[in-house]
Design brief:
Helix content of chain B: 55-70%
Largest interface: A-B, 47 and 51 residues
Number of domains of chain A: 2
Low-confidence stretches of chain A: 1-8, 10-27
Strand content of chain A: 15-25%
Radius of gyration of chain A: 23 Å
CATH architecture of the largest domain in chain A: 3-Layer(aba) Sandwich
Helix content of chain A: 25-40%
Mean pLDDT of chain B: 87
Oligomer: heterodimer
Order of helices and strands of chain A: HHEEEHEHEHEEEEHEHEHEEEHHHHHH
Radius of gyration of chain B: 29 Å
Largest sheet of chain B: 4 strands, antiparallel
Low-confidence stretches of chain B: none
CATH architecture of the largest domain in chain B: Orthogonal Bundle
Number of strands of chain A: 14
Strand order of the largest sheet of chain A: 10-9-11-8-12
CATH topology of the largest domain in chain B: MetI-like fold
Number of helices of chain B: 13
Shape of chain B: globular
Strand content of chain B: 5-15%
CATH superfamily of the largest domain in chain A: Periplasmic binding protein-like II
Number of domains of chain B: 3
Structural class of chain B: alpha+beta
Shape of chain A: globular
Structural class of chain A: alpha/beta
């Protein structure tokens, strides 16, 4: 009989858990929550140099990390008031949905099905899928890869793009799919594959981890569109607008030549566009629920888009990726922001 | 005694309440899951199995391409899992029996080597061993363009080179080299993309060879029944094993030669990145089999040792006293009794091996777990359906294995008791 009572207790507990799961996460006013808390909670990757990566002291750096810092600077005037939450590719969206993080800034591709459930605030890095091969193979183009063995990480859009590309060019290939990025790059390094494929930015990042990085080359072809950007939850338009305009402010600042070094001089500028950006004209920050000098805070503490790009992934970083299509629209790229007015 | 104090009634009451609560719980889970899935915009059901998969798989026992469906991915994955499970069980049993018997050997060195093997292998994590084999295979093998050719030609030509190198007359070296050239390039290659073998292509009339093989197997079974009847009736023995071997090998071979060897080979050739043509064993499969076979064999060795030690020494002494030879004693007295102890735990090891084969995901071998419960789940988000199917499949494989082994055990016991 003791056992019967035990079973009874156990099933009651199970029942309670079963019903507990059906409680839906409440949508709070995110801006108010961040101000009350005094810090921003930002979902980032588990370590991708250039985008979001902790150093040996636990300080996070990277392009995606700087977006978190820019948001914190705009709201709290302090780029260090950010708590970083490292998330796997699998868990990232659930954490955002459940309200565990305020914003997900984690090299995620903007796709229709994801946008139908969350809000992408813009594209902070236009990426695409590419191929890395050994220089010794003397391959100059992805179209010469007929019959190659290719290492990919499973459960990504990468695997599907690969199938499409080889099929549409009627080439044969052998795919070896691994569960984690580390296993994939290890198998490539071990010679199991001729080719390693993923987003180009990640290729540059993983290339740094190879023992002889100079023996490998990234092919020029880009076989897919991977627009990466931060995401917020559905249902909080004020927060959606705020994060979106933090991104636009950084691009507008670069376009107007305002950077972290000359931002104090910009406050004395007579140019109407600069005056609206730095808040000496109009009340644009207040319309977003921020202060007038919101953009000054972002640029002073973090920098404009160009500074952030060069510092983390561009010429000023170990990755050394060229701006390419991530240049401003005025310089031949496609980075473009609506005007502040 | 009042009804509510009757232990039987009370027990039945509590069990009924527990049952209702468990069912209510299961119902709540089902309702909750389907409501949440609908709220998130996921269609539940098995319709996704008909959608196009879009990704490639590097080892398929049936035809498969990216345009095939998730349903076909499931079949491909299932066959890959079964391939590993069957080959793994066969080799693990063979290796396990050898090591188990070695541990009982009166030879000190052999027994100790067996002991060291068992203690080392079974005390290291399987995933670690799997990665070791995979990286060891990859690390020691050359790339496709420097493949190791297995055959007489490379051996002879390197002997020729060696003779020239140590300063012996060139005539001898050239003799070896020309012999190598006459034999031609080898057909079996080893590299870090796997083992490449020639693919046999059956020609006209090959069906007769298959028919001959089938006939030989039937004849061997008939002969075995006849030999057993004769043994029961007259006590005379008949060398069934050797005769069956001669039948099964000889008859198809005779048919093959009579038809003028109607078989040709597709020879692998290095073209582009890798060999084209022939059959290839991928290193993921080789590494997975190595790891599963060596690991499971350590446990099977202990099972076998326990089984043999469980037969009392008096049994073999009695058999020897009756005048049976050593071999017959082992075959007729020891092994049948040992099998009674060996088979049930051996079943466990087969089940373990099959389930452990899902570690394939660690080395990129496309088994059921990797391509279906991994990639397909990730692409379709149909988690509940896919996990349910995968669970049902592993359960079915395990239950079928258990059934077969129990049937074998019952049969072995019946023979023993007769």
């Amino acid at each position: 009989m003791k056992r019967a009572i035990f079973t009874l207790g156990l099933s009651t507990v199970g029942l309670a858990i079963g019903f507990g799961l059906s409680v839906a996460p409440a949508t709070a006013q995110t801006l108010k929550a961040v101000k009350d808390r005094g810090s921003l909670i930002c979902g980032v990757s588990q370590g991708l140099p250039g985008f979001s990566n902790p150093d040996d002291k636990g300080n996070w750096t990277g392009l995606d990390v700087d977006y978190c810092r820019a948001i914190a600077a705009a709201i709290l005037n302090d780029p260090t008031k950010v708590k970083f939450s490292p998330l796997s590719t699998k868990d990232r969206f659930e954490a955002l949905k459940a309200g565990e993080i305020d914003v997900l800034s984690r090299n995620s591709t903007w796709t229709l099905s994801r946008d139908a459930t969350y809000n992408f605030i813009g594209v902070n890095y236009y990426d695409g899928q590419g191929f890395m091969v050994r220089k010794a193979l003397k391959v100059n183009s992805a179209l010469e890869l007929n019959g190659a063995s290719i290492c990919v990480q499973t459960g990504t859009t990468t695997e599907l793009n690969l199938g499409d590309y080889f099929r549409s060019n009627s080439m044969r290939y052998e795919v070896i799919a691994f569960a984690t990025a580390d296993e994939t790059i290890k198998a490539y390094e071990g010679g199991r594959c001729d080719v390693f494929t993923t987003d180009v930015s990640q290729l540059y990042s993983e290339k740094l981890k190879l023992a002889k990085a100079d023996d490998h080359v990234i092919l020029p072809e880009i076989i897919s569109k991977e627009p990466l950007g931060p995401m917020v939850r559905h249902g909080d338009d004020q927060w959606f607008d705020l994060v979106k305009w933090v991104h636009f402010a950084m691009i507008n600042a670069e376009e107007l030549g305002v950077n972290s070094k000359n931002v104090d001089e910009a406050l004395k500028s007579n140019m109407p566009e600069i005056k609206r950006l730095v808040g000496t004209e109009g009340n644009f920050g207040e319309q977003l629920g921020l202060t007038k000098d919101w953009a000054v805070r972002i640029v002073k503490h973090v920098g404009n888009y160009g500074e952030v790009f060069e510092r983390n992934v561009g010429s000023g970083s170990r990755l050394g990726i060229s701006r390419g299509i991530n240049r401003l629209w005025t310089k031949g790229g496609i980075q473009y922001a609506p005007p502040i007015r | 005694m009042a009804v509510h104090n009757n232990p039987k009634v009370r027990s039945a009451f509590y069990q009924a309440v527990a049952l209702v609560l468990v069912l209510a719980c299961a119902y709540a889970f089902a309702v909750n899951a389907s409501a949440n899935l609908r709220a998130q915009g996921f269609a539940s059901g098995f319709g996704f199995l008909g959608n196009t998969a879009g990704f490639g798989i590097n080892q398929t026992l049936i035809d498969y391409s990216e345009t095939d469906t998730y349903g076909r991915v499931f079949v491909v994955g299932l066959l890959n899992t079964l391939l590993v499970a069957v080959i793994g069980c066969v080799f693990a049993t063979i290796l396990g029996f050898i090591i188990g018997i070695a541990r009982l050997s009166p030879n000190w060195l052999i027994a100790r080597l067996g002991g060291v093997y068992v203690e080392t292998i079974r005390n290291l994590p399987l995933l670690f061993q799997l990665l070791f084999w995979y990286l060891a295979v990859l690390g020691t093998m050359p790339g496709p363009r420097q493949s190791i050719g297995l055959g007489l030609q490379p051996i002879l030509s390197s002997i020729g080179d060696g003779i020239a190198a140590i300063g012996l007359p060139n005539a001898i070296a050239d003799a070896f080299r020309s012999l190598a050239a006459w034999i031609g390039p080898p057909d079996v290659y080893l590299n870090n993309r796997g083992v490449i073998l020639p693919r046999p292509l059956p020609g006209d009339g090959f069906g007769w060879v298959v028919i001959a093989l089938g006939l030989a197997v039937l004849l061997a079974i008939g002969m075995r029944i006849w030999a057993r009847r004769r043994l029961d009736a007259t006590g005379k023995t008949f060398p069934t094993g050797w005769a069956a071997f001669a039948l099964i090998v000889g008859l198809p071979l005779a048919a093959l030669l009579a038809l003028g060897v109607p078989i040709s080979f597709e020879h692998p050739q290095l073209r582009g990145f890798n060999f084209v043509g022939g059959v290839r064993l991928i290193p993921e499969l080789v590494a997975l089999l190595f790891a599963l076979v060596t690991y499971t064999a350590a446990y099977i060795a202990e099972v076998v040792r326990a089984g043999i030690l469980a037969v009392p020494r008096g049994q073999s002494e009695a058999a020897l006293a009756l005048g049976l030879r050593r071999g017959l004693t082992l075959r007729l007295i020891i092994v049948p009794q040992a099998l009674r102890v060996i088979v049930p735990p051996l079943t466990n090891q087969f089940l373990n091996l099959t389930k452990n084969s899902s570690l394939a995901v660690g080395v990129g071998y496309p088994d059921l777990f990797a391509v279906f419960a991994g990639t397909t789940l990730n692409q379709t988000h149909q988690a509940i359906e896919i996990i349910a199917i995968t669970m049902a499949v592993y359960l079915a494989i395990s239950l079928i294995t258990s059934l077969l082994m129990n049937w074998y055990n019952a049969r072995a016991n019946r023979r023993f008791e007769r």
